[in-house]
Amino acid sequence: MATKAASEIIAIKPPKFEHLALRLVGTAPLCQARFSAKSMQAMKAKMEAGSTAKKGANRKARDFDDDFRQAMHIDAEGGWIGVPAAALRNACIDVCRMVGFKMTHAKMSIFVEADGFDVVDGSPLIKLDAPEPERLEMAVRNATNVADIRIRPMWRKWALNVVIRFDTDQFTSTDVVNLVNRAGMQVGIGEGRPFSKSSNGLGFGTFEIAMD
Q1: In the 8-state DSSP scheme, what is residue 190?
Q2: Domain limits at 189?
Q3: 141 in a domain, yes or no?
Q4: Total tally of structural domains belonging to the chain
């Protein structure tokens, strides 16, 4: 005896993502200050030493040239300098609060495609289109209010060729362009950006979309 096939009601649409290629051009210097592999190793050694860490330890001379090199994000395979893809993605998510879009939805709706991966921690990178960096030396105060000197790479002229993957049920391509432009003007990327989590920024790391 023939049976009637059960009908199925589909309430969830399949995901529909598109890609948008953009060229971002810096409108202010870009500065980096990654947590170096050398610092991580020193911290690990100190933790492993436990209570004996400071007994009889000699303070090594600081190599500022090495600090400069260690502050950059380097691709594991190509050796080129990059910018964390998360920096641009986070900037786009941060600026959603300015346009009344839920940040929690944006976290699931917009992504930045990686060109490579960091040699230290494997984080996704976008290749930086820029000349060799200059060395920036700045006097700062760390978390314990102790004065310190930080050596950072800085690029006065820079650009990024990025590919953004986005959910078309949440954003149109025009939405994405406007969101990225706002992120460049109001949030920025890198050290000293306008929407820095720990300060009002130095005006670094702002950018705009190259319209051509």
Answers
A1: S
A2: 17-32+63-209
A3: yes
A4: 1
Tell me whether residue 161 is in a domain: yes
Which of the 8 DSSP states describes residue 71? T
Is there a contact between 55 and 99 (Cβ–Cβ < 8 Å)? no
Encode the chain (212 residues) as per-residue pLDDT tens digits. 566 667 888 888 899 999 999 999 999 999 998 864 444 454 545 554 566 556 556 667 777 788 889 999 999 999 999 999 999 999 999 999 999 999 999 999 999 999 999 999 999 999 999 999 999 988 777 777 778 788 899 999 999 999 999 999 999 999 999 999 999 999 999 999 999 887 788 899 999 999 86
Residue 155 inside a domain? The answer is yes
Residue at 120 is within a domain? yes
| E strand residue ranges, 56-192 | 73-74, 81-84, 110-112, 116-117, 124-129, 134-141, 147-155, 159-167
